[in-house]
Design a protein that fits this description.
heterodimer, A: alpha/beta, Rossmann fold, 8 helices, 10 strands, 38% helix, B: 17% strand, binds adenosine-5'-triphosphate, binds magnesium ion
């Protein structure tokens, strides 16, 4: 059973003249422990794909199976619970709660799940230190740099032991050094913890950390490549590919 | 639940200023609600005293079964009884005055006598009203001193300092007159007051009393209180006082419901403020909320988060409000109390906290807050997880306001149409409809109003004015809601002021009409009835025969019932009465009605009766009389000053004599001839009424002045409330302005970065605030005019015929208040905006 299975997935926005087909019959199978990067030109449907897989939005056609169950048929509450337990999200704009400190932000999914606060806090601190944020636990988001905020977000995504981590341009708002730190952190999640990571990115250098690259264009999968070279080689190959497509 | 509390608390704490302002609105509402209502029992009690005592009645009067004196020590048993607010023990006995001591044989009243009443100086004044014309009341240490009523002083030619000698068990007692009671005091005609111990020795009844007078707490059931007193005192006692009239109770109830209304209106405004704040909060936090949804917070959790936030504010606000309310009522009682003490000689008690008031205030305070958070919480619930993925856009309004405005216009038209019916219930409804209509239209009014007033401001500060105008119109709904809460405050101010002006005019008019004559010959009790002894034809004939008297007419009294409802009947002379006095008509025409009275069984009823029994002109009433049932046709609805509050009917004296066997005059109205002066006529009249000691001669103009004074004072309390109601409007504006500034921190930083000076930023905020208040004031005036028309209409319908006076003063006051509020509200936010640190502002998220 694949972790993620996407069957004939379509998403159409609007109707008539303003109709936009964001996704057009996409089929994908992603196994556990794979680090997948989604690339493609702006407006090709990358975010849309991620949203549908994450159960943040509903498809207009086809279905998404997470560990074998069809999420497009779930009620809002079941879906919410699934997100809480099985998925972690990393957003482009960090999206931390400004009035909570780093530990509280990280512990949020556990607290939402009704875990005891002290257990939640302990787990949150563990994840913060895995992401090299020791000693930053009591800082509020506005006291952290962009890269640090994003690492808090990754800790938050991991704290509930999810099966899948979904990240939409997690480095979109960061400089290249912070971006590398984020990519390394995500790589570790896959290598050390055997989680599945699905990441949207524009940056071939960041995509090079992945095991597999899916290229989208006009809502269709146009290329699906496994990477096995070194980081530098992969990045070069990807750059060429992006230019060719 | 824990997560909601954590987040709610953190969010509130993170925006302290806003929390303070929103909570303040709740505090204010609860303060009014709780404070006014804990003041009421104290105040109402005082009013009861003053009304009850001036009419010479107490709630409960206890005496022994056999009317014999009993031990004074019995009194201490009463202190344990709930429901008694005040009590005092009295020893009273009639003492015949021999001729040697100034007594005289009088055909009407028999041998003249005085009633010697021994009172406990400390408690007596709590139960009855002893207002003094001269001198002082009894004090500690007094022995053979007395306070006597003015009539007796006049009759016996006594003044303070003189000695009044009365028979005593010890022979005679020489009492030094230390005080003379005024006319409105609730003394019997020939009742003299001495210290209790003195009375006990004069009457040779040591340590004895024979009456206990008590007032019940407002809200207590008299029968229950009497039963528990009698149970406590044992079998040899009886209760024998006249029950205070229902009309009094209903007047007091009115007052109480007025206070509730005030408090609830203040809370409604607080509700607006909270609603507004939470709407902004939800808009501001869309991305946070979306993220929470994405990482697995359910819709209920999100809704709960906002609800908990409003719950926290509701609880804090209510708790503080209860505290402030108590202090407020203490302060107000102290302030009002001193006025009352000096004007009415009424002492006002401490605030009373009733469980009902406490629970009611808590429920309403927390309820309104949570209720106002509900709709924003609903919309927070609908935030989709996807909103977390989008970058935050500055909150701009996309909502279509036009559709609502059309509904608003429809409602306004309906409201105006509703007025045409002239039916009070429909008119009341159209008041509500009008208000809702204005609130719906408000968002589209923002732009035109901002344009007009913006031009004014732009002419002074061209750059800032333009910016402010733009900023205000950016969030029409928020501006509209803020303006709406200000509108409610101002509208109520205008309406109440208009009502007061109209009532005042009406009051003067009917005071003039009812008491239009030069003299009044009044019975002891102001309210007619109540056991007043009338005079026979002799009195009016003698008065008419007096030199310098042009005309005199009388009012007579009887009582009747219609289907079991009591109706006081006043007999008047339909030929003379309208000439020298008159009734104030709210339905029917004066001349026609009085003419109809001369011809057959016709009755004019007052508004109270017309409303409660649903009677109209032309109806035929069946009155119970000693002669059986009598049919009277209603020829008008009208009232006179003295009988406005009790269900009353006016019929001709001929009919009163034939059907109700009543031929005594209880009140006389007398006019001088134009060339006669008061100096000549007053002594002559005084000589006449000496033989009719139940009457007192009153110069109408003096009486009117006194009544006007009391009226003005009652109204001034009203004015204070009116002003208080405008305050939530101020809080709303300050709140919105600070929300606006916080929300635009980034923009303000940007403005500063590109070269706006601090002063310019400040001016911009001030200008926006003034524009906002201009909007509120404009709306307030519109609604205020409508409401005031309704209110005045409503009072006329109840029977106090009043005309609508355009509330010019109210409108001017509102405009001033609006401008001042606009400036005050912007003070803190403006400083905040000016002090924005540019770099921080640009990082602000
Ligand atoms: N809510 C929406 N309503 C209408 N059209 C939409 C909506 N969201 C996305 N689209 C359209 O769907 C298509 C795919 O959008 P999507 O956001 O998935 O692109 P993307 O690949 O993530 O682009 P980018 O790299 O710029 O983030 C685009 O053409 C976009 O205009
Ligand atoms: Mg995208």
């Amino acid at each position: 059973m694949a972790t993620i299975e996407v069957k004939n997935l379509s998403k159409v926005y609007g109707s008539g003249e303003t109709k936009v087909t964001a996704l057009d019959s996409v089929n994908l199978i992603i196994e556990q422990g794979q680090f997948v990067a989604v690339m493609g030109p702006s407006g090709c449907g990358k975010s849309t794909l991620l949203h549908l897989i994450g159960g943040l939005d509903r498809p207009t056609g086809g279905s998404v199976f997470i560990e074998g169950s069809d999420i497009s048929k779930m009620s809002d509450n079941t879906l919410t619970e699934l997100r809480r337990r099985k998925m972690g999200f990393v957003f482009q704009f960090f999206n931390l709660i400004p009035v909570l400190d780093a530990i509280e932000n990280t512990a949020l999914p556990l607290i939402l799940d009704g875990i005891k606060p002290d257990i939640a806090r302990t787990k949150a601190s563990e994840w913060l230190s895995r992401n090299k944020l020791d000693g930053r636990g009591n800082h509020r988001p506005d006291e952290l740099s962009g890269g640090q905020q994003q690492r808090v977000a990754i800790s938050r995504a991991m704290v509930s032991d999810p099966v899948i981590i979904l990240a939409d341009e997690p480095t979109g708002n960061l400089d290249s050094r912070s971006s590398d730190e984020i990519a390394v952190a995500l790589r570790k999640i896959v290598t050390d913890w055997k989680r599945t990571v699905l990441m949207v990115t524009h940056d071939p250098r960041i995509a090079a950390y992945a095991d597999r690259i899916i290229f989208l264009k006009d809502g269709k999968v146009v290329d699906d490549t496994l990477l096995n070279g070194s980081n530098g080689e992969n990045a070069k190959r990807l750059k060429e590919k992006v230019e060719s497509l | 639940m824990r997560i909601q509390f954590l987040l709610a608390w953190r969010y509130l704490w993170g925006r302290k200023q806003r929390m303070v302002l929103t909570t303040l609105a709740v505090v204010f509402g609860v303060t009014l609600l709780f404070g006014l209502n804990s003041m009421i029992p104290g105040m109402m009690e005082s009013f009861r005293h003053s009304m009850v005592t001036t009419s010479g009645k107490v709630d409960i009067s206890i005496s022994s079964d056999s009317n014999n004196p009993f031990e004074q020590s019995v009194l201490s048993d009463l202190s344990e009884i709930d429901g008694i607010s005040q009590y005092t023990g009295i020893l009273t006995k009639n003492v015949v005055l021999p001729e040697s001591l100034g007594g005289s044989i009088n055909k009407l009243t028999g041998a003249s006598s005085v009633t010697v009443t021994g009172v406990d100086f400390a408690t007596a004044q709590n139960v009855r009203n002893y207002s003094l014309r001269d001198g002082r009341f009894l004090e500690a240490g007094d022995t053979y001193v007395t306070v006597i009523p003015q009539l007796l002083a006049d009759k016996m030619e006594l003044k303070t300092g003189d000695t009044f000698t009365i028979p005593s068990s010890e022979g005679v007692a020489d009492l030094k007159v230390v005080g003379v009671l005024s006319l409105s005091a609730s003394a019997g005609l020939d009742e003299i007051f001495v210290p209790l111990a003195t009375a006990q020795s004069i009457l040779n009844l040591p340590e004895k009393i024979n009456t206990i007078d008590a007032l019940i707490k407002s809200g207590s059931d008299r029968d229950e209180v009497v039963a528990s007193i009698l149970a406590k005192l044992g079998p040899n006692f009886k209760s024998g006082a006249i029950q205070t009239g229902d009309e009094l109770a209903s007047a007091l109830m009115m007052g109480e419901s007025m206070m509730w209304l005030f408090g609830i209106m203040a809370l409604a405004m607080a509700g607006f403020i909270i609603f507004n704040t939470f709407r902004t909060v939800v808009a501001e936090r869309r991305r946070d909320l979306g993220m929470l949804r994405a990482i697995g917070a359910s819709k209920q959790t999100i809704m709960g988060l906002i609800m908990v936030e409003s719950l926290i504010q509701g609880i804090i606000g209510t708790a503080l409000g209860l505290l402030c309310g108590y202090l407020f009522s203490l302060a107000l009682l102290a302030g009002v109390g001193s006025i009352f003490a000096s004007m009415l000689r009424v002492t006002i008690g401490a605030p009373v906290i009733t469980t009902a008031n406490l629970i009611g205030s808590i429920i309403l305070g927390v309820g309104f807050t949570v209720g106002s958070g509900y709709f924003p919480a609903r919309s927070a619930m609908k935030v989709t997880p996807l909103e977390a993925m989008r970058p935050t856009l500055g909150t701009m309004e996309y909502r279509q306001n036009n559709k609502r405005a059309i509904w608003g216009l429809v409602l306004l038209a309906l409201a105006l149409f509703g007025l045409l019916f002239g039916e009070i219930k429909i008119a009341g409804l159209s008041g509500v409809v009008f208000l809702v209509g204005i609130i719906l239209i408000a968002p589209v009014m923002v732009k035109p109003v901002a344009d007009i007033f913006g031009k004014l401001i732009s002419s002074i500060y061209p750059r800032e004015g333009k910016l402010a105008q733009g900023n205000l119109t950016r969030q029409p709904s928020r501006a509209a809601i803020t303006a709406s809460s200000m509108m409610i405050g101002l509208a109520i101010c205008i309406a109440l002021m208009a009502m007061i002006t109209s009532i005042e005019h009406g009051f003067v008019r009917y005071l003039d009409k009812s008491l239009g004559t030069d003299y009044l010959l009044m019975p002891p009790s102001l309210v007619l009835g109540g056991g007043n002894l009338g005079a026979n034809q002799g009195l009016i004939e003698k008065i008419k025969a007096t030199d310098g008297i042009e005309e005199a007419t009388s009012l007579r009294l009887a009582s009747s019932q219609i289907d079991g409802t009591a109706l006081q009947l006043i007999g008047l002379d339909p030929l003379v009465y309208p000439k020298i006095a008159g009734l104030e008509f709210s339905e029917g025409i004066s001349e026609k009605a009085f003419e109809a009275m001369t011809m057959g069984p016709a009755i004019i009823v007052n508004g109270v009766f017309a409303i409660t029994s649903n009677v109209k002109t032309g109806d035929v009433l069946t009155l119970q009389s000693p002669q059986g049932e009598q049919e009277y046709t209603v020829v008008g609805i009208a009232f006179d000053y003295l009988n406005a509050k009790i269900a009353t009917g006016y019929i001709s004296q001929t009919n009163l004599a034939n059907d109700f066997n009543s031929e005594s005059d209880v009140l006389l109205l007398v006019n001088r001839t134009p060339d006669a002066t008061a100096e000549e006529v007053t002594p002559a009249l005084q000589a006449v009424i000496k033989e009719f000691p139940t009457f007192s001669l009153i110069d109408s103009s003096e009486f009117k002045t006194e009544q006007m004074g009391m009226f003005k004072m009652a109204m001034s309390v009203f004015y204070i409330m009116v002003v208080m109601l405008a305050v939530p409007g101020l809080i709303a504006m300050a709140n919105t302005m600070s929300i606006n500034v916080i929300e635009r921190t980034r923009e303000i930083g940007m403005l500063r970065a590109v070269g706006a000076t601090q002063t310019q930023v400040k001016r911009m905020v001030f200008a926006e605030s003034v524009l906002l208040s201009a909007l509120g004031t404009t709306m307030g005036i519109m609604v205020g005019l409508f409401l005031s028309y309704l209110l005045v209409k409503a009072i006329s319908v109840i029977g106090f015929s009043t005309e609508f006076y355009f509330p010019t003063m109210g409108i001017i006051a509102s405009m001033v208040v609006g401008l001042v509020f606009g400036i005050i509200a912007a003070m803190v936010p403006a400083r905040q905006a000016a002090n924005t640190v540019i770099v921080e502002a640009l990082q602000y998220e």
